[in-house]
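Example record for the data management plan.
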Amino acid sequence: MAEFRIPERHAQLLEFAQSLTPPSGWKVEISGDEIIMMAGPSVIHQRNLLVVREQFDAHRPAGLMPSENTDLASPSVGKLRNPDLTYIPLSAVELGGNEVPAELAAITVEIVSASNPENDLVGKVRDYPLMHIPLYLLIDPRDGRITLFSDPSDGSYHRQWTGKFGDTVPVPEPFGFGLDTAGLIRYPA
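Corresponding structural encoding:
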């Protein structure tokens, strides 16, 4: 496996972020020169994540494992993101530590936070293609919308599928199935 080098600026931010003691249920991310702290998810958020994860688990390719709230690091572009759900190679366990190189992720799944939607809708749409993550599934319980971003190159996603709760999302390989979203629920108005 290639050596995972961390540029000095990112290493400093990472060291500082890791020295923080966030309140229970909070998580820390790095995007460029920003350290982002977010509150833990709601019960609706967690239920929606379960509906999605159970389907992905049923279509999980051999050699990939699900991981919730794993730090995906991309030091070359100064990013450390912590998706709600990702699928990474089982071999990532051999790396040890708390971070996984982002380019190993097969997909990231985010349930939009009611308290900080811009992080998922803007920041991660910007960061995930820079981090070479091939698929980004974005589920927004505020308005019942779903977007699947794919085909990252030149720092952005070049394809997107958009639908609403109740639609079937065409999830490409390596999963290759239709994600049933009828069981997703919206946040209360």
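Summary line stored alongside the record: The chain has one domain: 41-180.
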